[in-house]
Design a protein that fits this description.
Radius of gyration: 28 Å
Order of helices and strands: HHHHHEEEEHEEHEEHEEHEEEHEHEH
Helix content: 25-40%
CATH superfamily of the largest domain: von Willebrand factor, type A domain
Low-confidence stretches: 142-163, 408-413
CATH class of the largest domain: Alpha Beta
Length: 413
């Protein structure tokens, strides 16, 4: 059921809508990836997060009619230019007070600050978390009601939530005693005479081997590395593939933080090379150099997962291109953008094989439909018992989030 929030209008137009609605209206501007979309109302800003651009973006959001109700919209249209500027100042002030953005004044040295014309802003962790929440709501909205929980496995363990069965107690088990099974073991060994009322007898002689505990479904934590392709091809060919991928990564981060608190999520960008960045910095990331060094991304992801003390480990790779670069032993970058280079492919598959030996699953979400590339991705997924999805930016989130939530991950022996 849709929730409607009512607020008392006091004559202050900056209070006639929620800042959450404004952040949602500005999301395309705040998450710009460098794609010059002619249909975007923010395309002339080129993703530059200056205070001047923020003011203009807010002005366009106010003029769009998406924020005000009918009465407030009429009041806004009656304002003169100076009153509109004052309203925008009030909105920016509230965005800072509620910790959605931080304003930064450039430092000119010797304690002096730069002019307001050069002032910049950044989205705070709270703002990023909210954008991730909204992205998650949008992606899951068309899918209907979903039950979220921890990752199930095929194993059973002693615990509080029982599933009807019991087991002999082993050192380290939770002592959730199954009294019925324990007494049955005692009576089976010593006979029912121990339970006859009125006769003198010694107390029940319970042996260590008699103790039974209830079993519960064993749930485990998972370490996930999102491997995000930020090579230049992600914004080429007339389509922005990187911004949807950023939204999905943010939604996945919010899902893990709120529904799987025992899990971890790390983010790795790969292009000519690879680097790890905090999820909170994702909004400011734009596409980088032209080549795709998939092997370097996999190597960095493995080093991150090796530090995680989790039962299950996985790599979620989002890409649109073939591996076209390789880091050589001397540190130089070997590049070949034409076709599937045998050296690059062989070294990349060898890295996939290392992931398999470390029990790391790789699930690949491919934003391309090239036949030879599809064969390579299917081979890579088969090697590490992962999955390959050939999708588009429009339905990437549905595929990825449903796979993450519905998959029953097993421990591989």
């Amino acid at each position: 059921m849709k929730r409607i929030r009512y607020t008392k209008f006091t004559g202050d137009l900056s209070s006639s809508f929620g800042l959450e609605d404004l952040m949602q209206a500005l999301s395309d501007f705040l998450l710009d990836s460098g794609f010059n979309d002619p249909l975007s109302r923010f395309q002339e800003f080129d993703g530059d997060q200056t205070m001047d651009n923020l003011r203009e973006a807010i002005r366009q959001a106010l003029e769009s009619g998406e924020l005000f109700d009918e009465e407030s919209q009429e009041k806004y249209e009656a304002l003169d230019e100076q009153q509109v500027e004052e309203l925008i100042d009030q909105i920016i002030q509230k965005m800072q007070e509620q910790n959605f953005i931080n304003a930064e004044m450039p430092d000119q040295g010797q304690g002096e600050t730069g002019s307001a014309e050069n002032a910049r802003f950044e989205v705070t962790d709270k703002g990023m978390d909210f954008l991730g929440y909204k992205a998650l709501r949008e992606l899951l909205g068309p899918l209907g009601k979903s039950n979220l929980g921890r990752h199930d496995t095929r194993h059973e363990a002693s615990g509080v939530e029982t599933n009807g069965s019991s087991k002999l107690y082993e050192f380290g088990d939770t002592l959730n005693l199954d009294i019925t099974a324990t007494l049955s073991s005692v009576f089976a060994r010593e006979g029912l005479a121990t339970a006859i009322e009125g006769e003198e007898h010694s107390p029940l002689n319970i042996h260590y081997s008699d103790i039974h505990v209830h079993q519960a479904d064993y749930t485990s934590s998972c370490a996930t590395v999102v491997l995000l392709d930020c090579s230049h091809s992600m914004i080429l060919y007339g389509e922005d593939r990187f911004t949807p991928a950023k939204r999905v990564a943010m939604a996945l981060a919010h899902l893990i933080r709120t529904q799987f608190p025992g899990d971890t999520l790390n983010l790795v960008l790969f292009h000519d090379t690879a680097e790890e960045i905090p999820v909170s910095q994702l909004a400011r990331v734009k596409v980088g150099p032209h080549y795709t060094n998939t092997r370097e991304g996999l190597r960095l992801a493995q080093r991150i997962l090796a530090r995680q003390n989790k039962d299950m480990k996985q790599i979620v790779m989002i890409t649109d291109g073939k591996p076209s670069a390789l880091t050589l032993p001397d540190g130089r970058i070997y590049k070949n953008a034409f076709g599937l280079d045998p050296l690059v492919i062989a070294e990349t598959l060898e890295e996939v094989s290392r992931c398999k030996r470390s029990n790391i699953m790789i699930n690949t979400f491919m934003l391309a439909q090239d036949f030879s590339l599809m064969q390579f991705v299917q081979q890579m997924s088969a090697m590490c018992r992962g999955k390959a999805y050939f999708t588009s930016p429009a339905n990437l989130g549905n595929y990825l989030l449903m796979d993450f939530m519905s998959r029953r991950m097993k421990t591989v022996h």
